[in-house]
Amino acid sequence: MALKEKKKVDPVYRRKPSGKMRTKLVGLFLVVILAFVALAIRITVINAKSGDTYKKKVLTQSQQQYSSRTIPFKRGDILDANGTVLATSEKVYKLILDCKVVNSREEYLEPTVAALVQHFAVEESDVRKRLSDATTAASQYQILLNDVTIEQKKNFENYLAPDAETTSLSDEEKLKRGRVKGIWFEENYRRIYPLNSLACDVIGFTYDGTEAEWGIEGYYSSVLNGTNGRQYGYVTGNDTAEQTIIPAQDGNTVVSTIDANIQKMVEGKINDLWMALSGGPHGSGGAANIGVVVQNPKNGQILSMASSEPYDLNNPRDLTPFYSDMDISLMNDDIMLENLQKLWQNYCISSAFEPGSTFKPITVAGALEAGVIAEDSTYYCDGLQKYGPNDEIHCSIYPAGHGQLDLAGSLMVSCNDAMMQISKKMGASQFLKYQKTYGFGSKTGIDLPGEASGTLFTEDGLGAVELATSSFGQGFTCTMLQEINAFSSVINGGYLYQPRIVQEIRSSTGAMVQSNEPVLMRQTASTEVSDKVRDYLASVTSTQGSGKYAKVNGYSMGGKTGTAQKLSSGPDKYLVSFIGFAPLDDPQVVVYVVVDEPNLADQADSKYPQYLCKQIMTELLPYLNIFPDEEEVTPPEKVQAFDTMMAGLIARSGSTQPAGQPAGDQGMDQGTAGDTAGKTGDAAGQGTQEGAVAGTGQAATMNPQDPEASYNQDDPEGADNANLPEPPQDKEKITGGNQLDSDGVSNGDLKFIQ
After folding, report:
1. DSSP for 218-275?
2. Rounded to whole angstroms, what are the CA distances from 44 to 35, 55, 56, 451?
3. How far is it, in rounded angstroms, from Cα 546 to Cα 690?
4. CA atoms within 13 A on the CB side of 385
5. Using CA atoms, how far apart are residues 253 and 255, in angstroms rounded to an integer?
6. What are the C-alpha distances in Å from 183 to residues 48, 171, 326, 658?
7. How many whole angstroms separate alpha carbon 569 and alpha carbon 289?
8. Exposed (0-12), middle (13-18) or buried (19+): which is 55, by Cβ within 10 Å?
9. Confidence (pTM)
10. Per residue in 121-170, pLDDT tens?
């Protein structure tokens, strides 16, 4: 018989607890229960008797940490027309030291100082001084650093509380880090400019992240700024401690009319010309200044505005790119501030100058609109006009003359004599009226700070000589913005728009706050007059015109050259310019280029601004989806040679060859270099150097000494004739959309405003 297997029993289940053990377990359980009950009763009693007291202590500690802190707003962004960020604010932190906490226990001092020196750019001596000085030792709010980045903050926080899974610390190190006390961070914002110097004159910068005076930052500062929030505590009438947080309201976003792509291209072309002209006979720079404004003539919006030698918006006080270390070291505070302000000024709106012949289209348009000349009017140029026995004003090709010219020919060859005859028919009152109508003598009202108004003669001061020189852009001053805005009005149908640099304002959430629609200030000319003058200006960029160097092959366009002598700067100082537009029949864009005192032996040469305009237009027109509307033709040989020379200079801009005397330049057309005129005699201060291209063939065939020349030798229209009646005094007050600003010419009792 098989043996029966005995079942195994787990000894844990087999043993039964004794009565003594059960008594101990029950007793232990009761003790734990009683302890929890006692703790609950104690907490209840404390809360009932001293709850508010402890709440106040916690709140007080919180207030000490935040110092009833201000919650900063984020200043709004500045965007370009396509949404590219031009200026923004990034979150940073202030590094705060609570000296009272650090000094509360001796063992906190060394670990805290060591941690600060290790992780932040602070001087150990400065930290120890704040902790030991009687005036700061008990302070709970000492700012050690501004602009601490998020990465720096996170690294420091990880140092104090490292990840246990990835970081193994000794007990000694843990104890050391645990004794780092009294350091905390306060939110703040730092203004940054992602594109550095791009559009610096337009954007401007902030002094401290919220305050600004220059550019869009300055003009729209209150719009860009928001409202700070607040976190604070207080005690109610029932002795109840409360803490309240009022959130900050961020600033609005400003959308500019500037196109960053156009701006970058324009600044690059300016730099090309600057480098090509550098190293000439007048120093190392390419010119005193080179300015460019690009405008939409249909609504006044500015697409680009730039000048030479831009500065870094992220470091606007850095003068090292513009002055040597020795020069900077010799500057006192006043001189340094003066140099900085010159650097920060927007040349295109703040610098007033005599525009020269780019004003001639305004003279012609005003005279046509006034009815003192007609479309078929002609003028005989004999090279000069006389004003008394000692005063005579020359045309560009004096002692020769242009001969018989119609209005188109007068602009094509930039004839001063014709303009003087036209202005004489207008008279001082009528001429001054149209200067004001086109916006000269008063600010345009662009939404940028620092705009100059320019200067005009008063009617009493606008004598025969002054009227004559003003007709071709000498003797009065204007800004680049005034000139391009007036010119746009001439060629856009006769509508003067207020120029704008900002098109929209949006809230921090993206909602539309304000849309800056085009503002039509007044109509300056009829559509018929505008169409005529626009056609005349096409001849300027023809192969025979003074502006042929600006012509973009395949595109219909027009424009006007300018060469103004700067008598106040010296007899050989000139400002040369070109203003052009395209397409001819429906202008979509206007480009105005000024080269102030080019670094050349002969500064009176408008080929250089023409070249810059052409380089800009060649890339700008396709970018704006403006397609060629003409058959391409072979440019004149002189234009091809000049373009080749300039391309070589730009390619070799790092060479030592002076830009003022390029190889092979002797064979170039001297016409635009001769696009000047001079005034002799006693009417000092009203000289000019503006006129037409000589040596084009057109001038030769129209020379009055040429027996083939055709002109009216008896009594040419507009000649100096004492029997011609003076125009009536203008007493009409223009109203409505044509109303002039009351402060159009703020010259007081002076005949001419200096």
Report:
1. HHTHHHH--B-EEEEEEE-TTS-EEEEEE--BPPPEEEES--HHHHHHHHHHHHHHHH
2. 14, 14, 18, 72
3. 11
4. 31
5. 7
6. 34, 22, 42, 60
7. 14
8. middle
9. 0.78
10. 999 999 999 999 999 999 999 999 999 999 999 999 999 888 766 678 88
